[in-house]
Write a structure and sequence with these properties.
single chain; 541 residues; alpha/beta; Helicase, Ruva Protein, domain 3; Zinc Finger, Delta Prime, domain 3; 5-stranded parallel beta sheet
């Protein structure tokens, strides 16, 4: 006999063997025991959770000649006939490849015939969400009022794609993801029965990789057993699945956070040369950043994160220096990379460019994260300056520091007493329209920097953008030529004349700005005259 895959060999034969779906199997076994059989059932859940297996057990249970507390005996003529395929009253259909109207019409024509040997004719339609609209319509009437000898069992991973008319005609059962602990126990049991010892950390890793799908876990175990070893280790599982150690992911994350681009690129080279899966690595990296986010936002991450105490402590240390929005943005960036890798012919280049962006904080932060990031950076800059002024302790430096503070205070009081300061001037209403244009054109970063500012008219050629205290970063951003040009373009359109913008503080006066502008123009004129080797006479009227 040819080799039988482990997941087929160890497929449950009775309801009791179905792992972690007690809420489903108990109800179904009671239905059989009390002879309360419905005409249509819908089994929903992610892959590998037991939908098709349960459907097959149920199809035997309702037809079994000698059921045992709702379970099929698997010994009678009917059970054996269904298992070996000699009785054709249980029909399993793959809707992914049989999804047309004609396929459903064939079913509709067949249901009128009574079963050949069994009590019920059972139709198991797998991946039923793949049926076309026409096929669903053809199935609807039959599903609503089938002959008494027909049972439909529909299985799907995406119940939201089914029409409401189909859902309302079925008894629905939702299959849960199987916990890591339950999968671990089952993997260890199957390994032992197969004559192989498996270390606990190896079985746990297999369980985590299966993502709640027992079938996937058994398939990984089957592949590991093919190594021919009597004992399977954690390293064996890593080798077979092509994933990297937890320490590799942790080190890579640390290099990214510390902006060590060269080390990041070396790590990527090691990853590729060792033949590891780039897609799996990115998936692991996304999950690691998720753990960092949990460490940074919860008091007891140990209750949520499934990792060793040492690993969680490391995550806590790494998360301390990161803002929440930084972690969320990194997760989004890596998730986009994970999706792009499925279609890329150059996965290494995509990985390198994304991790360099993360390392250099060169991310396009959008929407709500923009404001958070600006506020965070402004606070850091403000803290640095405040500490820089007061940190000196020797007498001479202390005196200078005190004088600096006093001068700043006097300058502020003098500016506040002046009615002509930019902060006290009325802003031009047209600024609201300009900001709206920036927002509508998706210039969210620039919009976020300018949302708390106003503009005042310096003269016919210059418009002042007024910044309040602690807005140094926003002021620097607008000073960039590319940003200034965008704002000036919108202002020109609304004002109907050519203007230039100038960044000013709310404590400055318009007269001071005009004087500075004039001095700046004079210096430029002198510089040009000097380069051209001509005499320049400036007459101040």
């Amino acid at each position: 006999m040819s080799y039988l895959a482990l997941y087929r060999k160890w497929r449950p034969m009775v309801f009791e063997d179905v792992v972690e779906q007690e809420h489903v199997v108990k109800t179904l076994s009671n239905c059989v025991s009390k002879d309360r059989i419905a005409h249509a059932y819908l089994f929903c859940g992610t892959r590998g959770t037991g939908k098709t297996t349960t459907a097959k057990i149920f199809s035997r249970a309702v037809n079994c000649l000698d059921p045992v507390e709702g379970d099929p005996c698997n010994k009678c003529e009917i059970c054996k006939g269904i298992l070996n395929g000699s009785i054709l009253d249980v029909i399993e259909i793959d809707a992914a490849s049989n999804n047309s109207v004609d396929n459903v019409r064939d079913i509709r024509d067949e249901v009128v015939y009574t079963p050949s040997k069994a009590k019920y004719r059972v139709y198991i339609i797998d991946e039923v969400h793949m049926l076309s609209t026409g096929a669903f319509n053809a199935l609807l009437k039959t599903l609503e009022e089938p002959p008494s000898h027909v049972i439909f069992i529909l299985a799907t991973t995406e119940p939201h794609k089914l029409p409401a008319t189909i859902l309302s005609r079925c008894q629905r059962f939702d299959f849960r993801r199987i916990p890591v602990e339950s999968i671990t126990k089952r993997v260890e049991y199957i390994a032992k029965e197969s004559g192989v010892e498996i270390q606990n950390d190896a079985s746990t890793l297999i369980a985590k990789l299966s993502d709640g799908a027992l079938r996937d876990a058994i398939s990984i175990l089957d592949q590991c057993i093919s190594l021919g070893k009597k004992e399977l280790t954690h390293q064996d599982v890593l080798k077979i699945t092509g994933i990297v150690k937890d320490t590799f992911v942790s080190e890579m994350t640390e290099y990214i956070i510390n902006k060590q681009v060269e080390n990041v690129l070396k790590k990527i080279d090691n990853l590729v040369m060792d033949g590891k899966s780039i897609s799996q690595f990115v998936s692991d990296l996304v999950f690691y950043y998720r753990n960092l986010l949990i460490c940074g936002t919860t008091k007891n991450p140990e209750e949520i994160i499934d990792a060793s105490e040492e690993s969680i402590q490391k995550m806590k240390e790494l998360s301390k220096g990161l803002e929440t929005f930084e972690l969320i943005t990194a997760i989004k960036e890596l998730s986009s990379l994970e999706a792009a890798l499925k279609w890329s012919t150059q996965p290494r280049i995509l990985l390198e460019t994304t991790l360099i962006k993360l390392s250099e904080n060169n991310l396009n932060l959008k929407d709500t994260f923009i404001t958070d990031r600006v506020k965070s950076l402004e606070k850091k800059v403000s803290d640095i300056f405040s500490k820089g002024i007061s940190i000196k302790k020797d007498s001479d430096t202390g005196k200078k520091s005190t004088e600096k503070k006093e001068n700043s205070k006097n300058a502020k009081e003098e500016a506040d007493s002046n009615e002509n300061t930019a902060g006290k001037m009325k802003g031009l209403e047209v600024w609201k329209e300009v900001l709206k244009e920036l927002k509508d054109s998706r210039r969210m970063a620039l919009y976020a920097y300018l949302m708390d500012t106003k503009i005042v008219e310096i003269d016919n050629k210059f418009i002042g953008v007024v910044f309040g205290e602690g807005k140094g970063l926003a002021k620097t951003s607008l000073s960039k030529p590319e940003n200034a040009e965008v704002v000036e373009s919108h202002l020109c359109n609304f004002l109907g004349r050519e203007v230039k913008i100038k960044c000013i503080d709310e404590t400055e006066t318009v007269d001071t700005v005009k004087s500075e502008e004039k001095d700046e123009l004079v210096e430029k004129a002198r510089d040009i005259a000097k380069k051209c080797d001509v005499d320049l006479n400036i007459i101040d009227e």
